[in-house]
Amino acid sequence: MAPPILSLEDVRLHHGDGILFEDLTLHVGPRDRLALIGRNGAGKTTLFRTIMGNVELDAGSRTVMPGVNIVWLEQDPDMSGHARLIDWALSGERAPPAHAIEAIAQQMGADLDRDAATASGGERRRAALARALASEPDLLLLDEPTNHLDLGAIEWLEDWLGRYSGAFIVISHDRAFLKRLTTSCIWLDRRTLRRAEIGYGGFDKWTEEVLEEDRRRLEKLDEKLRQETEWLHKGVTARRKRNQGRLRALFELRAQRAAMIGMQGTSALGLAKDEVKTKTVIDAENVTKRFGERTIIDDFSLRVQRGDRIGIVGANGAGKTTLLKLLTGELEPDAGKVNLAKTLSGIVVDQQRKLLDPRKKVRDILAEGGDWIEVRGVRKHIKGYLKDFLFDPGLSEALVGTLSGGERHRLLLAREFARESNLLVLDEPTNDLDMETLDLLQEVIADYQGTVLLVSHDRDFLDRTVTITLGLDGSGTVDVVAGGYEDWAKRRKEKTSGARKAKKASAPAKPAPTTRPAKLSYKDQRDYDRLPGEIERIEAEMSEIEAALADPELFTADPDRFAALTQRLEDKRAEKDAAEERWLAVAEKAEALG
Predict the structure, then answer these.
(1) Is 398 strand, coil or helix?
(2) Tens digits of per-residue pLDDT, 103-130?
(3) Is residue 305 classed exposed, middle or buried when 0-12, 13-18 and 19+ CB atoms within 10 A define those classes?
(4) Which of 42-51, 167-176, 225-234, 407-416 has the lowest average pLDDT?
(5) CB–CB of 338/326 below 8 Å?
(6) Does the pLDDT at position 518 exceed 60?
(7) Which of 445, 407, 443, 446 lies closest to 426 in space, CA to CA?
(8) C-alpha–C-alpha distance, residues 330 and 324, integer Å
(9) Which of residues 351 and 90 earns the better pLDDT score?
(10) Confidence of residue 512 (pLDDT cuts 50, 70, 90)
(11) Residues 6 or more apart whose Cβ sits within 8 Å of residue 445
(12) Which residues, 6+ apart, have CB-to-CB distance to 366 below 8 Å?
């Protein structure tokens, strides 16, 4: 067994008036793939700072093998003082060379020339990833690496980490990401760290066993201690079991909606009966939306029924926000119409948490300074409601500014879910949330009596919550699929495979040569090997252009750049078509040669 490249032994660390870590020990091997799991506020980010050597320990030791390069991808790095993203990426003594950063950025489709101050969360995240991955780390610390990334970028990162030869520790709420990549779990729980040599797929079973052992041990202690700790752990296993029942109900709803939708993509066929129409809350008919010459949404129809949970997925710039605004009436279509039920009353949970004043107390946010809160018409005490959202009841007097990012997000969810509404719009609701809060959010969405519109890149969460997925590919087409992310991914794969087969079948037959060559010519073999990578590169460039064109203000602010990008996109599409045609031709030759 290889010696550890980093060790923390018997670490003790105070935080404020309490102890954050006590007798904490961690050994990281040169090829470890560790999922770091713990509630918001448990100290996960502080543990990363400890690993980096940025924290002075009260007791214990930190040992790093000589020559080991530890790199930390922070969740929200400070880019102030830098004009462009590339300027930030190249700053500091340990910054990697420009060519290495630009190579990674190109693979991700990142534009590092963007203004650092106005860059989006996704652009900033790509810049941070490009810097971290280009630094040739031996140990990579990843703090919510998939936040603000679209599905294409997440899949690219998964592939990169799958080939990575070093060790990494990752904090992430993205269950699909963790299941694919991790081989061990470390659980930060009640001031110490537990480790199990299992991938994230076995985490729930392991933690239930640990909590059951704790329960038996607590039975031997006094009643007061049992009461003080019960609220923290009792609901975990119960919530998972309840959510299994909710998943079964969700699958039944998906089957019902699949029967109503009929042929994929036709959306509203079979929904013309009067009794069904009365349940319709949003009726979109042949909706088209363009920005300049680019069609964002093309001839889209869908009847959203009361109680539907609609997930919207696609790459950044594909038109998810545009579709969301069309469905909620915030944006008018260029063609077609969207009818909203007159009784529709919606609330929007914004991913930026702009509504929370850091100077206010939790009590002020939830109950306007009082002790009671109206939760969808039912009066509840604020401390009981805080427990429902996994807060310590004593937190009611805390200032919002002292809460972690995940706790602020959870507080916003608690406030918004208390309001009377029949339409809930969630924009990336899973960012910064821990696993238990995700389970809670799944439960609350399942119990919500109204309709849900949900934009998310969290594949596992979509699979657990939505009845219909709307998938955008950037061409204007919206695929309507009954089910979650996996159902849409399967349909996308079938659609792509079918298109390739159809393209191949439509190619004109060529007369057989009188003599069959023994192998491909040099030029054919070179194109056969080269073109798949070339097609991927072109697709990445197209995605980057489409992301820029998706900015609704671009056409007005800079029409010349909009026109240039539109023409460039058309050129890239033609280049891609030519490359695919050529590859199909040489592939047929290779197949004929056996």
Answers:
(1) coil
(2) 999 988 888 999 998 888 889 999 999 9
(3) buried
(4) 225-234
(5) yes
(6) no
(7) 445
(8) 8
(9) 90
(10) very low
(11) 309, 424, 452, 454, 465
(12) 373, 382, 385, 386, 396, 411, 414, 415, 418
Long-range CB contact pairs, 262-265, < 8 A, 24+: 264/479, 264/480, 264/481, 264/491, 265/477, 265/479, 265/480
Closest residue by Cα to residue 281 from 452, 427, 445, 455? 452
- Which of 483, 437, 487 shows the shortest CA–CA distance to 308? 483
DSSP letters along 527-567, please?
Answer: HHHHHHHHHHHHHHHHHHHHHHHT-TTHHHH-HHHHHHHHH
pLDDT tens profile 242-270 = 666 777 777 777 777 777 665 333 333 33
Cα separation, 488 vs 234, whole angstroms: 35
Q: Where are the alpha helices (DSSP H) in 174-288?
A: 175-181, 203-218, 223-261, 274-277
Give the residue carrying structure tokens 């996994």.
Answer: 390
Q: What is the pLDDT of residues 159-182, one digit of tens each?
A: 999 999 999 999 998 999 999 999
Contact 545, 565 (CB under 8 A): yes
Cβ-Cβ contacts under 8 Å for 519 (sequence gap 6 or more): 525, 593
Residue 168: name the closest of 26, 1, 25, 32 by CA: 32
SS3 302: strand
Q: Residue 352's Cα: distance from chain center in Å?
A: 15
Distances (CA, A) of 97 to 83, 130, 134, 217: 18, 11, 8, 54
Signed CA dihedral, 380, 382, 383, 389: sign only: positive
- Amino acid code (one letter) for 558: D
Q: How many residues does the chain have?
A: 594
Between the alpha carbon of residue 472 and those of residues 100, 320, 544, the distances in Å are 32, 7, 15
Return the higher-pLDDT residue of 62 and 375. Answer: 62
CA distances, 7 to each of 30, 37, 62, 92, 388 (Å): 12, 18, 6, 26, 38
Rounded Cα–Cα distance for residues 501 and 559 (Å):
39
Instruction: Tell whether the model's pLDDT for residue 360 goes beyond 80.
Output: yes
Cα–Cα distance measured from residue 547 to residue 122, given in angstroms and rounded to the nearest whole number: 11
pLDDT at 254: 77
Q: Would you say 505 and 515 are in contact if contact means Cβ atoms under 8 Å apart? A: no
Residue 290, helix vs strand vs coil: strand
Percent of the residues in the chain that have a pLDDT greater than 70, as a whole number: 84
Q: What is the pLDDT of residue 583?
A: 73
Q: What is the mean pLDDT of residues 59-86?
A: 94
Identity at 210, one-letter amino acid code: V
